Amino acid sequence: MPTIENALKSWFILVGIDYYKPGSRLGPREIGNLRGCVNDVDRPGKSNQKPEKLATARNIVEALENVTTNASPGDLVYFHYSGHDARIKTTYPEYKGGPDKYDEVIVPCDVQCPEGWFIRNIELAGKLHLMVAKKLVVTVVLDSCHSGGANRDDDHDGYGATRGLEEPFEEALDNGRRDFLGGASAVGEWDGIFALQTTGKQIIGLDAETWLLKQGGYEFIAACRPKETAREPNNGSGKPHGALARFLREALESGVSQPKHGMLFWKILVAFRSSKGLKQTPVFAENTKRRFFGFEED
């Protein structure tokens, strides 16, 4: 469910995917549905809002590109993704260290259909880089993982379904599709981008060995570390949410307006540690002193 909103130079790209269209593009493997992802991106007072478009691969990419095109330097951009993650054999061996490496991917709702594709982390990093290069102030939240069980309707321990596909895809799939800077074909354009230094970056909960964290220039909050699972437990009212989305919303509603990322993340971390059944550790990267969805510290 990608939704774009623009008000007072603030842009929101909200992607929540509970239903995955059936299809045969991935062979015998089937992607199960989730229950709390759309709830994650429903805003208080605006539940069951009609999405602008379905969260297909093309619509997600176009939403990112449209915001980059239409936003002005200094505008605020918030990108939230709730849905499945997976790992798939890389189509970027020159950047990943060889053809045997993997790309982490987000999973659009039409990925099992002929017109769908996975959106790889190196491609998402490139789209976010274009925003940063335009001097947009970007916040990224990913409530997903790539290490859960294959059947997503699993609530075997009472903590909700797991977001992520268990086994990696050993085939490159997507017919070798490569989506660089808006489809640029020259790999050399990226050499400088992925050689960027991470000096001064603050990363809590994880080292920098993911492409999204290496890319940098935006505040980044993820639901869990690699090899952990992102869950969507019931919030006590009969409505499932991703654990990260739930704790993020509660932290924002419990304190000062636009808290600094460091304090906000601390509240989220405490909430996870207080939930004994949730075995996931959230991750934060970049500037702890910047205010959430805002500018530098006072």
C-alpha geometry: globular
Q: In terms of structural class, how would the helical and strand content be classed? A: alpha/beta
Query: Number of DSSP strands?
Result: 12
**Strand order across the biggest sheet?**
1-2-3-7-10-12-9
Distance between the termini: 35 Å
Write the layout of secondary structure elements.
Layout lengths: L2 E5 L2 E7 L20 H5 L15 H14 L5 E7 L2 E5 L3 H4 L5 E5 L12 E2 H13 L3 E7 L17 E3 L38 E3 L6 H5 L3 E4 L7 E3 L10 H11 L7 H14 L8 E4 L12
Parallel strand pairs: 2-3, 3-7, 7-10
Antiparallel strand pairs: 1-2, 4-5, 5-6, 8-11, 9-12, 10-12
Helix pairs in contact: 2-4, 6-7
What does this structure look like?
The structure is a single chain. With 298 residues, the chain is α/β, with parallel strands linked by helices. The chain contains seven helices and twelve strands. The protein has helices at 37-41, 57-70, 93-96, 121-133, 211-215, 243-253, 261-274, and strands at 3-7, 10-16, 76-82, 85-89, 102-106, 119-120, 137-143, 161-163, 202-204, 219-222, 230-232, 283-286. A seven-stranded mixed β-sheet has the order 1-2-3-7-10-12-9, with helices on both faces. Strands 4-5-6 form a three-stranded antiparallel β-sheet. Helix 2 runs parallel beside helix 4 and helix 6 (243-253) crosses helix 7. Residues 147-159, 181-187 and 195-209 have low confidence and may be disordered.
